[in-house]
From TrEMBL:
InterPro entries: Aldolase_TIM (IPR013785), Alpha-hydoxy_acid_DH_FMN (IPR012133), FMN-dep_DH (IPR000262), FMN_HAD (IPR037396), FMN_hydac_DH_AS (IPR008259). It comes from the Bacteria. CDD domains: alpha_hydroxyacid_oxid_FMN. The keyword Amino-acid biosynthesis does not apply. Its cofactor is FMN. This is Alpha-hydroxy acid oxidase. GO terms for molecular function: oxidoreductase activity. PANTHER family: 2-HYDROXYACID OXIDASE 1, S -2-HYDROXY-ACID OXIDASE-RELATED. Belongs to the FMN-dependent alpha-hydroxy acid dehydrogenase family. Residues 34-411 form the FMN hydroxy acid dehydrogenase domain. The keyword Nucleotidyltransferase does not apply. SUPFAM superfamilies: FMN-linked oxidoreductases. The lineage of its organism: Bacteria, Bacillati, Actinomycetota, Actinomycetes, Micrococcales. It comes from Microbacterium candidum.
Length: 418
């Protein structure tokens, strides 16, 4: 008698094979949608984007300053945190809505401002705005974007539109843009304050990144098999930058209008005089500056190290968040960016006291991977991660997220969250 029983076999019937032959239908999807449908994480979109985008624009998005320590630390802060889930909670329906700057957002994250967006994909900011409008989230147009203030507003009049600027040397350029944003119904002004000079982005130097991209032997060889990117570039309108003014040369504005390293907190006064809506100060990295920005009347501050693209070896904004909430959370809304790559990151930041989170690289990877369809896919990925993380934590709404559900780790030691 055999030691083990043998399998009882039979000839398979056609009905038995049917479940194994079912193919996932992609009927009705265009090429870009089919391409990004295979992405299940933002890192998947990044890998697709790297294949499809010339090295200059891709590494402009992907890279940071100097040795990229700030960029890596910001990401590691999210990787190292601990969630503390609650069990046996009713989480069959999850409410991801929240408010930021006293207006509703369907998700606890929005799209932060990014420069030169049409270099990533010729659909540029307009495609991103349409995706943001469908998702019901705000999107900030950068003053060094590649779409005009008027065209951006006309693309999706009902969308939540913010405008981002710098404290420029040429004050008239700032005032002109602020007036245009006000006239076109932008709801908030985001002033980025961590760029007295541009960071030393070595990848841009290595890969020959320029505005607009220059066709050298190196860039030609690099882009020779990325036909769609070059076809889009050459068959659509040439880039113009958001800050440009008809009749004023681009080079003149670049020299006279940016990187003013003489500005102080006093300069916020003329910004405040020109803008009567919500004012958000972006680039806060210390408690002292958080307090000064709140005292200056900021409706919101963005804890940010510019995605690791300015000063290297800075502290991750996530680690500053709990103390900033205690210091100024009652006086101003705290928004966080830098290092955010997943919906779980968003949930952790909200639990630790952030009112809202801004993502940049995440949607740009989607844009490079598949244009507007890729941005939609990035939103889908982040939304599903937010919902799933909330359910696994045992919370059914954004309002239920609290600091005791997260513990931060810093250099291997637990950081208490009070």
């Amino acid at each position: 008698m055999p030691k083990y029983a043998k399998l009882e076999r039979r000839i398979p019937r056609p009905a038995d094979l049917k479940p194994f032959l079912a193919l996932k239908s992609q009927r009705g999807l265009d090429r870009a949608e089919r391409r990004v449908a295979s992405a299940y994480t933002i890192d998947d979109l990044r890998r697709i984007a790297k294949r499809r985008t010339p090295s200059g624009p891709f590494h402009y998005v992907d890279g940071g300053a100097e040795e990229e320590v700030s960029m890596q630390r910001a990401r590691e802060a999210f990787r190292d945190l601990e969630f503390r889930p609650r069990i046996l909670r009713d989480v069959h329906a999850v409410d991801t809505t929240t408010t930021v700057l006293d207006e509703a957002s369907a998700l606890p994250f929005g799209f932060g401002p990014t420069g030169g967006t049409r270099m990533m994909h010729s659909a540029g900011e307009r495609a991103v705005l349409r995706a943001a409008a469908r998702a019901g989230i705000p999107y900030a147009l950068s003053s060094v974007g590649t779409t005009s203030i008027a065209d951006f507003a006309a693309e999706a009049p009902a969308a939540r539109r913010w405008f981002q600027t710098y404290l420029l040397k040429d004050r008239e350029t700032s005032l002109r843009m602020i007036a245009q944003a006000k006239e076109r119904g932008y709801e908030a002004l985001v002033v980025t304050v961590d760029v007295p000079v541009s960071g030393n982005r070595l990848r841009d130097l290595k890969y020959g990144m320029s505005y607009p991209p220059q066709l050298t032997v190196k860039t030609f060889l690099d882009a020779s098999y990325r036909v769609e990117w070059w076809s889009n570039l050459l068959t659509t309108e040439p880039y113009t930058f958001t800050y440009e003014e008809p009749g004023v040369s681009r080079s003149e504005l670049q020299v006279s209008g940016f990187n003013d390293n003489t500005t102080t907190f006093d300069d916020l006064a003329w910004i405040r005089d020109a803008w009567d809506g919500p004012l958000v100060i972006k680039g806060i990295q210390t408690l002292e500056d958080a307090r000064r920005a709140a005292d200056a009347g900021a409706a919101g501050i963005v804890l940010s190290n510019h995605g690791g693209r300015q000063l290297d070896r800075t502290a991750p904004p996530l680690l500053l968040l709990p103390a900033a909430v205690r210091e100024v959370g009652a006086d101003t809304e705290i928004i966080l960016d830098s290092g955010v790559r997943t919906g779980a990151d968003v949930v952790a930041a909200i639990a630790l006291g952030a009112r809202f989170v801004l993502v940049g690289r995440a949607y740009l990877y989607g844009l490079m991977a598949g244009g507007e369809a890729g941005v939609d896919r990035a939103v889908q990925i982040l939304r599903s991660e937010v919902e799933r993380t909330m359910q696994l934590l045992g919370v059914a709404s954004v309002a239920e997220l609290t600091p005791d559900q997260v513990r931060l780790l810093s250099r291997g030691a637990l950081v208490p969250v009070e």
